[in-house]
Amino acid sequence: MSSHYEAPIRKPLVIGEKTYHDITVDVARPVEGRANKLWWRVFAIALIAFLWGVGSMAYTVGTGIGTWGLNKTVGWAWDITNFVWWVGIGHAGTLISAVLLLFRQKWRMAINRSAEAMTIFSVVQAGLFPIIHMGRPWLGYWVLPLPNQFGSLWVNFNSPLLWDVFAISTYLSVSLVFWWTGLLPDFAMLRDRAITPFTKRVYSILSFGWSGRAKDWQRFEEVSLVLAGLATPLVLSVHTIVSFDFATSVIPGWHTTILPPYFVAGAIFSGFAMVTTLLIIMRKVSNLEAYITIQHIELMNIIVMITGSIVGVAYITELWVAWYSGVEYEQYAFLNRATGPYWWSYWLMMTCNVISPQVMWFKKIRTNIMASFIISLIVNVGMWFERFVIIVTSLHRDYLPSSWTMFQPTFVDAGIYIGTIGFFFVLFLLYSRSFPVIAQAEVKTILKSSGEYYKKERDSKENHQSLNH
Amino acid sequence: MSNKVVHAIYNDDDVLLDAVKETRAAHHHIEEVYTPFPVHGLDKAMGLKPTRIAICAFLYGLVGLSFGTAMMYYIMIVDWPQDIGGKPSMSFIQNMPSFVPIMFEMTVLFSAHLMVLTFFMRSKLWPFKKAENPDVRTTDDHFLMEVALNGDEDSAVEFFKKTGAVEVKVIEK
């Protein structure tokens, strides 16, 4: 027991008198049970939204990009807004699994699996947009530097859009192997509990024959640590590269050096909000309240508050620099954001992103599940508008007043966005019924140090000893 | 006698850790330990050598960096040194800032994937691999120590019972 000492000030991360076996049973229950009516209903809605999106995408590719609300001035709007929004959401998963691992945060263990799933599924959504927003998506493979019969005609490595290709594909593939490696012991647990030959077979294949040898665990932990060390700069670089799409341009309102860290902060901000949204529902419907506790929600809220404040500082910095720059185009870009035809989206963004996370300073609010849920939704709306504001308000009015225009989305723009939300939930709902949603092998390692029952035992023992002396 | 092993099964990681130390002290050869989660300090107690997989990852990263750099040097500077938006294309170093994002991504890509593949190969993990844990409970809440049996069977069983094992089995391999 002495090896599991933890300062008494730390709150328990596993509630109740759980044993190792209880953790197994609790994590396996949603996978081994049958889906209820509610699951099927939500799944059906998500599936319909997804199919609607597929239809919208097929219509776009078949008929042309002109079905969208873009025009000659505003060539990027909902497509890239949604792309950046989805990539941003994905970042919290890596933050939770990698950065919090490097900082040895034990509370990450109950939430990392779902956060990583969220990463994978949202990067998949993000990955759709760079392809379908192409005029000729069937030539999409030309972005790859493949030797070819055009005298070997290559790509131009100066473009941030090409950097995006490398960044997003590296990010998705590295996140995927990181997630899968962590899943092996948990799939092995499901395999060894499987009753039907079919599930036994499925989880045997998925678990890669994991046997839990001492040497395997030693390598497993080293691999996790190195992957965390690689994923942390990766996550920073990916959103930095996404921000380069704008920051390296010459457009007033886009061309700022603050964009890389500011986009990353925004990504963590919106990503953690999405994790909060998903986990508040998941802990309830999957009966995991003993593992995803109020403490977890409070800590996520604190991160939302911190990153929200960083985003707030970035907004003020941008405004300051615009004024300080003496560049009238830059000054007008920000004047236009605040008072132009899209003033409502700018002020909506400001309210959602700057004011709403500040209520987390109140303990009453950040430990309240309902309030956290609502604020997490508000943050995601706000962060969608942040990308919309940056993209559209900088484009629709820039250097030449004769090119000034407005942007109006069409139902195809909306249909694709709704479709990606549907696709995300289709994947997430399937995941929540077939994958171990909590990294049980990891939670078992902190049970003795951070379990409520063990902490109490230890406290009472210590009190007893001090009375005797 | 030579192909018999003892399976000592424990239901607590602290008991297991003490048992491993006692077993080593008594000069029994531990063949393998199967645990449901990483028991910290177990590799040290067993006397396992540290893994070198992080060194591999570093080397793979260097390979990725070299690959990315060479690719962009050849394509952008050697093969088609064109003027694209006034970017200096006559020497690598002049256009280098544009190449940094991909040099970085290639480093991470190679390092991460090749390390994971190395892990799968060294630990012999692949999709259709058959699991080799001798008892299904070792992925739930039991810990199994496999020890080579040499000498008297009964005294060995007695020894492992004393280390706190909830079950001791002698298995013909």
TrEMBL record, chain A:
The keyword Transmembrane helix applies. Keywords: Cell membrane, Membrane, Transmembrane, Transmembrane helix. One of its GO terms (cellular component) is plasma membrane. It is found in: Cell membrane. The chain crosses the membrane at residues 38-63, 83-103, 115-135, 161-183, 223-242, 262-281, 302-323, 343-362, 369-394, 414-431. It is a multi-pass membrane protein. The keyword Cell membrane applies. Its main location: membrane. It holds the Pfam family NrfD. Belongs to the NrfD family. This is Hydrogenase.
From TrEMBL, chain B:
The chain crosses the membrane at residues 53-78, 98-120. The keyword Ion transport does not apply. It comes from the Bacteria. Keywords: Membrane, Transmembrane, Transmembrane helix. The keyword Membrane applies. InterPro entries: ActD. Pfam families: ActD. PANTHER family: LIPOPROTEIN-RELATED, QUINOL:CYTOCHROME C OXIDOREDUCTASE MEMBRANE PROTEIN. This is DUF3341 domain-containing protein. The lineage of its organism: Bacteria, Pseudomonadati, Bacteroidota, Flavobacteriia, Flavobacteriales.
